Prior knowledge:
With 543 residues, the protein is an alpha+beta fold. Helices cover 30% and strands 23% of the residues. Helix 10 packs antiparallel against helix 12 (364-374). The longest helix is centred in the last third of the chain and has 18 residues, at 487-504.
Amino acid sequence: MPGSARRGTHTTLALLAAATLALAGCGSNAEDNAAAAGTAATADGSAAATLTVDASLVVKTLDPGQVYEPTGNVLVHALYDTLVTFDGADISKPVPSLAKSYTAADDGKKFTFELNPDAVFADGTPVTSADVVFSLNRLKNLKGSASPIVKDLSVDAPDPHTVVVTSSTLNPNVPTILAEPYAGILNSKLAKENGGTDAADASSTDKLTNYLNTNAAGSGPYLIESFDAASRIVLKANPKYWGTAPKFGRVVFQNMDVQNQKLTMSKLPQNELALDLAGDALTGLPKELQQSGSADSYYQLRLQNDPAVSKVTSNADWVAALQAAIDYQGVAALFGPAGKPAAGIVPTAYAGSLPESEAQKQDLPKAKELLAKSGVGDQSVKLLYPAITFGGVDLGTIAAKVQSDAEKAGIKIELDPAPIASFLDQRKGGKVPFSFSPQLLDYPVAASIVADLMPGGHTAEAAGWTAERADKETVAAAEKVLSARDSADQVEALHDWQRLMINNSPYITLVYNSTTVVAGPNLKDAVFSAAGWTVDVADIGTN
């Protein structure tokens, strides 16, 4: 099957681990608030108020080759330019950034980028094709969370201003992959001077990450002023930025839990926004505040398809009975106005989602009939889930809802909450009969989900869903998605694939949830983006 067989897995793991870290978020102190109210020099030397971003800081590093957490992506996107990017919240097509233009070969494998001669790093040196080759090879060879996404790519530099990226498999989404924060371009000379390497053994020999946590080596609109992942991270405007200068000379990211984020935003602060308000936390906010978001995550049940592991969850009639028993509207209601009952797998933020009219519906008579037909209706199964709050909702509440709905059809489910580390370890082993978790996309193209969920993918492997057990028509539909070169054809193929997955896969998608950016009334362009970085702080100005 074309494409990477591991796409999607790392997103889920990083997402859940990040949620655990987010629970440690604390309220801001007086020093933070005083700093946020200050002024700073912009690129042209004028004074500008500081932009404050309230978030449960989820970041381990500011190294683009290692970044994969929500807050980290926002920060790295502001520090490092990529070959291409997205225009605001429009994720339909990558637009030029470091590359002034790019072309795709007819084979869907080769992409040529012509660099903008105006692009320079923060020290004033020009961005060259050698820097791109170094950065992308380092990303691949570091073997970090994002490395599997680019493992099929090779990079060449025919001349100092031209970059050729070739995929070993058909993949029309290569430009989108290269727009993500992990594909940020480093000043290769500076990187090498501080322990960086793009060699095949970079995972063990590269020593650059610590340097990049306090010194940006990119060409982006901001530089690092200070970095404390536990409490406060401050960016300052890059005085040598080659593009449009950011509107704020300084951006303060302060660690703040959801309760304090809501309290702070309720006071209608100037030049401030919050990134973690969701579910009930969005209710009761002043109407003057701006809210923007889109359903970019999906919450999914995974059922073990290997009868040697579970005769219950591998029974197709039992799975179909559970699917019919669930009250999808009721699950969505747990998320407040941001929750939407799932139609297929692809969330509505992305092209390829099924229409709302196809949202799954509860059918208890059908569920009871299928359970009786299954022959295993008298057996109970445990539902493993991480004991955390994510997206504004305690995952235990969702698990309890599934248990309650199933019970109405006679399906017996025992809840099995686990600490996040234990949950991840158990699921990794591939012996869990029944589990539940939220998921995000690795990059903003719905096809990135397909290879991971189908036989051969990491998630399918953990679910015991092999090529021998899979429906041939569903496999063919997945291959059609991954081989589509035209975006319209890919969307149509995604629709067909999802409809088949509903009936033939070991996954039940319950609900979509929206990430929401809440911003002060005076801010301009403080909007949510599903591009992979939540919000572009360099775009934000004032009215």
